[in-house]
Amino acid sequence: MRMLSALTLWVGMTVTALAADPILIGLNYPRTGHYKEEGLAQMRGALLAIDEINAQGGVLGREVSLITRDTASRPEKAARNVDALVDQGAAMLFGSVSSAVAVAASERARQLNTLYFATIGYSNDVTGANGHRYVFRESSNAAMTGYALGHYLSTHFADKSYFYITADYSWGHSSEQALRDNTNTTDTSKHKGVLLPFPTAKQSDYTAVLKQAQESNAEIVVLALYGHDLVRAMRTAETLGLTKKVQIVAPNLTQSVIEQAGPGLMVGVIGTEHWLWRAPEVENSATGLAFVENFNQAYELYPPSAAASAYTVVKQWADAVQRSNSLDSGAVINALEGHEYSLLKDAAQWRAFDHQNIQTVYVVQVNDREAVMAHPSRQDYFKILERFEFDQNMQTFEQWQADRAAAGKPNKL
């Protein structure tokens, strides 16, 4: 009887200790400023993943709890947030939409020996020239999207003239270059381009660059712009009558951009997505379909790619912790490197040499209003034109090494 009482007391104390001692993970995301819509989606995806993990017993027998900081999409603020989140006890950090934020925050995390997942951040630099041992990126990079989009355009829009309007920062530059390389449009005298100031572009800047595109008589206008910048450019293009005269291409199209601009404005635009809520149907992914249903039930919305990326990060981190039986960043990194999995679509892999998530990329086109409204959700924004699996679209080790060498970085993380 005395032994039973002692055991009961020990169990009670253990349960109480576990309940009071959760594992903290830190979301460093844009709650305000540029890309706040993608930031909100990341928060929602992360919370859904944490709820599911805790309902299944947590990680290493402990519940997981989320702590957050607002980056406002400013790199210096994101780096300071890393210190605050680590001081609070975060075992892992994730977040970002801007590539510059991902680079700054992950570098500070490296200095603190803390694992950082760049949830989104499409510039090659994140896992390329600025990559290091402590950073992993869930979303596709510019090389992957450039390959997929470039091959589609080369097949279906052969021998067309291009004009590039590019955001003047690392993502814009790498996206333009990747698309030029894969569409045979590297001759800038024939396929002209212009830079748009980032992040300080004025309306006069949008008007000026789009008038140059109009005067070029190009058949394809590439808007290597993202988020709010892409929305403003599309509104200006419509005002100038450009949307009805040319094929507009945007390397990274997202659900949040369509919702900000309105699907009517974006009809016919071609781009890429690394995940969309139709993907689980295409790939026959049971867990992906469940995620779409659960997200819709929780938030009365269909999930965008930003939500899927955050959900994947949290689930994959938890899986790596369980497999390594450790919260130590080094042990979790070892468990992630080279790990192949299927979660919300088909197979993906955390590539060992650069920590890039290699995965299927979808070439998509924005549906017309009739198609959008035909679905009960009123959110069927994209038609999938083609899919490129990771063994088709990935950057090679030799290409990665060349990028590192050009930046004066070592040829391994």
UniProtKB/TrEMBL annotation:
It comes from the Bacteria. Pfam families: Peripla_BP_6 (PF13458). Residues 1-19 form the signal peptide. Residues 22-368 form the Leucine-binding protein domain. The keyword NAD does not apply. Coiled coil: none annotated. Keywords: Signal. Belongs to the leucine-binding protein family. PANTHER family: LEUCINE-SPECIFIC-BINDING PROTEIN, PERIPLASMIC BINDING PROTEIN OF ABC TRANSPORTER FOR NATURAL AMINO ACIDS. This is ABC transporter substrate-binding protein. It comes from Denitrificimonas caeni. The lineage of its organism: Bacteria, Pseudomonadati, Pseudomonadota, Gammaproteobacteria, Pseudomonadales.
